[in-house]
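Model: Ready when you are.
Researcher: Fold this.
Model:
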Amino acid sequence: MDAKLRAVAIAGPGAPEGTAATTHRQPTPRSIATAEGAFSQEQVKVFEANMARAREADSANDENACKQAIADAERIFDQ
């Protein structure tokens, strides 16, 4: 996810500085990509839910469910 967001953030157009830029926090690839409109908040939420599902499946040693959750998460960026 980070690699895809970083690529989108680097390739995307510049945007005006928002108020979040002045709060003394480092931007993340996700916040940059979201701010530039590369991904909607809904896409980010769905991705994070799929990754949580993958972590739960991994903890339960359910390899098939883990792989499915990761595949579902990756599809978010292919839309």
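Researcher: Now this one.
Model:
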Amino acid sequence: MKKEKEEAIKTLVELFSKTKVVYTVLKKVSPSGMSRHISSFVIIDNEPRVIDYQISKILELPLKDDGVLISGCGMDMGFHLVYSLGSTIFELEGGD
């Protein structure tokens, strides 16, 4: 598991050297509204590159057919996903 996470981080750091923009697409909301399937991608050489697998490994979230399963509501979960990814990869710290 640790090796997969390290490889996923390495892959995304390489992709992020070419672009700094991550796009998210809300694919599905559970009937209760408490979880979502979100797919993410980057554009490299005018081609979308789906990064759902890497995100699921780095953030230890379940990977579904249509994206990463993320629980929560009451905020922009796409932003939360990308912020958590950046915080993990680049070790950003919030606060003071």
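Researcher: Key takeaway?
Model: The longest helix spans residues 2-16.
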